[in-house]
Specification:
218 residues; alpha/beta; Rossmann fold; six-stranded parallel β-sheet; 10 helices; globular
């Protein structure tokens, strides 16, 4: 039986990946980026840290592209949106977190979002108190798909990676779980699993409810 579940945040716990994408696409119009190109960039940056995202923008749009300016616009616009509308919790997450608590399974966070923003969003959503340990994007050197953030999150909750489940919605995130030698679970959000992910991920689910249903198989 697994001893811990380590969650990504955006797109897994919170319906925030959709908000990020919405605001990246809106900002792209101001910077002359075609929608299809921006969608491809969004797929590449999903699950990555700000440094990873910066590198992708430089590769896609050139080193002179004003990435930091655009990123700040996106974050400011998103903060204003959340202040009015909030962020929805993804279906089945409250039930799954409660289920894990009842089973005395450790609950950890491995998010590429920086600490201040992540903590604020988790507290506003009423999820923060469920967690036994946290690891944030600004605390590690190598972003997903490197395994570092998941290895550190496992240390934070006091379990070995092979005794833990990693739950992700992005390609970068699933590879981070695989590279950490964890049980890799993808819950589909905005990004469809690639053929490679379908072959290498341990489980692919439509919602957190499926993880509850299949828990005894893990």
């Amino acid at each position: 039986m697994k001893k811990a579940v380590i969650f990504d945040m955006d797109g897994v716990l919170l319906d925030s990946e959709r908000l990020y994408r919405m605001h990246w696409l809106q900002a792209a119009k101001l910077y002359g980026i075609e929608e299809d190109h921006m969608r491809r960039i969004c797929n590449r940056i999903a699950g990555g840290s700000s440094s990873h995202t910066k590198a992708v923008f430089a590769e896609e749009l050139g080193a002179d592209f004003p990435y930091e300016e655009m990123r700040q616009r996106v974050l400011d616009d998103m903060d204003a949106y959340i202040l009015v509308h909030g962020i929805d919790v993804k279906p089945g997450i409250i039930e799954l977190l409660g289920f894990l608590k009842e089973k005395h399974v450790k609950i950890g966070l491995a998010t590429s979002t920086e600490e201040t923003r992540a903590v604020k969003n988790l507290k506003n959503a009423g999820l923060f108190s469920f967690f036994d340990g946290f690891m944030f994007g600004n605390k590690i050197q190598h972003s997903k798909p490197a395994p570092d953030i998941y290895l550190e999150a496992c240390r934070e909750v006091g379990v070995k990676p092979e005794d833990a489940v990693g739950v992700e919605d992005s390609i970068n995130g699933i590879f981070a779980c695989i590279h950490a030698h964890m049980t890799a679970v993808m819950i589909i959000d905005l990004i469809e699993p690639t053929p490679e992910i379908r072959q290498q991920a341990d489980y692919i689910f439509d919602s957190a409810f499926d993880l509850i249903e299949h828990w005894n198989e893990l």
